[in-house]
């Protein structure tokens, strides 16, 4: 946001925000909320806008696409963006209902690296309780284990969260698959969850957990969320070289 404010002060707003007219004579902002906020912080009193006639569902699709074009987008943001787009496509009257493959097809220029199956996996994350979803955003729970947990009831997810806090560890993919299967069979309870979570994981390495929100300001905007760990490693190596030469 700070970088955007500086850019707008120096060059003005390059990309207009997008609005759609409403029946009452007013306008609704479809995309550009961050740009609008940056313009306000930069001291601007007017803003460039592109006004388009569109339905509410068309507006949702455009809003989702705009968000997906951001360089850094958290797994939770991507999950709800894909879900909103899928629901909007369904309401637009697709024969037989829209599929995750159509979500990809309609946004091929934006999310070409992800298949319909991958989009479906991200949408599954919206079934996680907020606390577990936050662990996914922080990188403490991977996508595959998170998808397995998404099939478990919220009450059972809460019990798993309790064990994550108490044991200060997160379940492996193999453990989440077992938790999912036991839940499907109706054999998952608090004692079983505790027993699985307290198992010693083979070849488990110590990890340092830093909430992404706390380091986000130090990561360049061109570095994607998935590349953040690699960037931090390179930055630390550079810092060590600096210490040796200083």
How would you characterize this protein structure?
The protein is mainly alpha-helical. It has 14 helices and 3 strands. α1 packs across α2 (about 35-40) and α3 runs antiparallel to α4. The longest helix is centred in the last third of the chain and has 18 residues, at about 230-245. It is flat.
Give the domain tally.
4
Number of strands: 3
Tally the helices. Answer: 14
Radius of gyration: 22 Å
Order of helices and strands: HEEHEHHHHHHHHHHHH
State the end-to-end distance. Answer: 33 Å
Largest sheet: 3 strands, mixed
Helix % is 55-70%
State the secondary-structure class: mainly alpha
Strand order of the largest sheet: 2-1-3
Q: What is the percentage of strand-forming residues?
A: 5-15%
**Outline:** flat
Query: Could you report the average pLDDT, rounded to the nearest whole number?
Result: 82
Low-confidence stretches: 107-112
Which terms summarize this structure?
flat, single chain, 5% strand, mainly alpha, Conserved hypothetical protein from pyrococcus furiosus pfu- 392566-001, ParB domain
In short:
The chain is mostly helical and 246 residues long.
How is the topology of this model organized?
Elements: H1 2-11, E1 17-21, E2 27-31, H2 33-41, E3 49-51, H3 56-68, H4 75-91, H5 100-106, H6 108-111, H7 116-124, H8 130-137, H9 143-150, H10 154-167, H11 173-184, H12 190-197, H13 212-215, H14 228-245
Parallel strand pairs: 1-3
Antiparallel strand pairs: 1-2
């Amino acid at each position: 946001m700070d970088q955007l404010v500086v850019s707008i002060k120096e060059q003005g707003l390059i990309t207009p925000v997008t609005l759609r007219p409403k029946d009452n004579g007013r306008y609704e902002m479809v995309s550009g909320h961050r740009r609008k906020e940056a313009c306000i912080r930069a001291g601007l009193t007017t803003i460039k806008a592109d006004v388009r006639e569109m339905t509410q569902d068309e507006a949702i699709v455009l809003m989702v696409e705009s968000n997906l074009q951001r360089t850094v987008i958290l797994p939770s943001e991507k999950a709800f963006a894909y879900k909103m787009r899928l629901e909007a496509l369904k309401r637009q009257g697709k024969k037989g209902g829209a599929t995750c493959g159509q979500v990809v097809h309609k946004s091929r220029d934006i999310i070409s690296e992800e298949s319909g199956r991958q989009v479906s996996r991200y949408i599954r994350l919206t079934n996680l309780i907020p606390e577990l979803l936050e662990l996914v955003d922080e990188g403490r729970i991977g996508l595959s284990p998170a998808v397995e947990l998404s099939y478990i009831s919220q009450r059972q997810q809460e019990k798993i969260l309790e064990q994550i806090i108490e044991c200060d560890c997160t379940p492996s993919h193999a453990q989440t698959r077992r938790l999912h299967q036991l839940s499907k069979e109706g054999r998952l309870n608090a004692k079983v969850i505790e027993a699985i979570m307290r198992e010693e994981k083979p070849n488990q390495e110590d990890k340092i957990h830093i909430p992404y929100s706390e380091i986000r300001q130090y990561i360049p905007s061109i570095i994607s969320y998935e590349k953040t760990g690699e960037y931090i490693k390179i930055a630390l190596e550079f810092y060590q070289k600096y210490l040796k030469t200083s």
